[in-house]
Fold:
Amino acid sequence: MNYEIIDKYIQRLIEETKPEAPIWNIENIRQGKKPAWNYIDGCMMTSLYSIYGLTGDEKYIKFIENFIDYYVFEDGTIRGYDVETFNLDNLNEGRILFDLYKLTGKEKYSKAIELLYSQIKRQPRTEYGNFWHKKIYENQVWLDGLYMSEVFYTRYVAERGNGDFSEIVKQFKAVYEHMYDKDKKLYYHGWDTSKTAFWADKQTGLSQNFWLRSIGWYTVGLVDAISYMPESAQDGKKSLIEIFRNTIEGLEQYIDKDNDMLWQVVDRIGDEGNYPETSGSSMIAYAMMKGARLGVIDKRFAAVGNRVFEGICKKYLTETDGKLNLGGICLVAGLGPDNNRRRDGSYAYYISEPVVENDAKGTGPFVMAYTEVLQMK
Structure:
C-alpha cells in the first residue's frame, strides 16, 4: 500500500476546511445547519491529534487549535452547546480539550472540560445506571453513546477525578449483558429499558438488527476507555478487557473474505441492498490494531485490522479530477423518535440511508485506523 496517497488525502481535508464549514461535515452541509459543537468534528480532531503525536508536524496542532478556538469562547462556553439537551454526542469532542489544555495552558479549555463534565453529573440514567442517549430518548441506550460519553468520562476520572471508574465499567457491562447476542456474537443497535419505544421488542427492549457503525463506536469506546484507565483500576479494567476481547473475536467472523471489509448490516453479507461500509470497518480495524498494540487482545489482530484497513483503501479510496475521495460511508442512522417512524431499526431502513464520500463519521475513523497502521511500520 502506498501510504503517501493517504497523507495526500488528509492534507486535502485540512486545506479545504474552515472551522465554520468543515468539508467533512456532510450532514450539516446538506441540512444547512449553523456551525455548532458536534461529535463529527470531534472525530476529526481526535484523529488529527494522533497524527500530530506521531509526526510532530506543527501544521496539525495549529489546525486543531484554530478550529477549536472558533467553538470554545474565553469563558469556557461552547458555540451551539446546550447542556439541557443531555445529548451524549456532544461530549465526544471534549477529549481534544485535555490535549489542548496541556499544550497551551489556556484556561478556557479547562473551563470547557468542566462544563461538559457538568452534563455527565446530571445526565438522566436508566434503572441499570446507563445514560439516556439524549433527553428526547428517554430510557434508551444506543451503542454509539458509549463511545460519545464514556471515553471522555474515563479520561476525566483518570486526570481530574477520584480514580473511581466503577460507574463507567457498570455501563459497559450492562450493554454486554443486555445488548449482546451470544449466538451471533454481535450487539443490537439500541435498547429501550422501558420497552415502550415503537422500534423496541416488547420482551427485551432491543432493536431488530446489528448496525455496523454502532458496533464500531462501542468497540472503539471500549479500547479507548481501556487505554485511559491506569493499572491501579485493576478489576474494572480487567472486566472491560474481557468484554473487548469477546467483542473482537466475535466480529472477526463477519469480515468479508472477498473484500476484507464488514457490511452495513453486519450479519447479512451479500443480501440485496447491503454493502461493505467504510466507517464501521475503519473503527473495527482501528480497535483490532490498537488492542493488539496495547496487548489486550491476541497480537494476530494487528494483521487482521491492517487487512481490513487495506480493504477499505482498495474499494473506496478513489481519485476524481485530481482529488482523492473516501466513499462507502453511511451518512447517518438512528432509531426514532416517535415522529420519525421511518427510523425503525429494520433491515430496509439501514440500507435506505444515503451513502456518501468524505463525511467525518467515516474519515475520522479512517484516519484513526491510519495512525495505528503508522505505528506498525
Remarks:
- The beta strands are 140-142, 180-181, 186-187, 190-192, 317-320, 323-326, 329-330, 355-356.
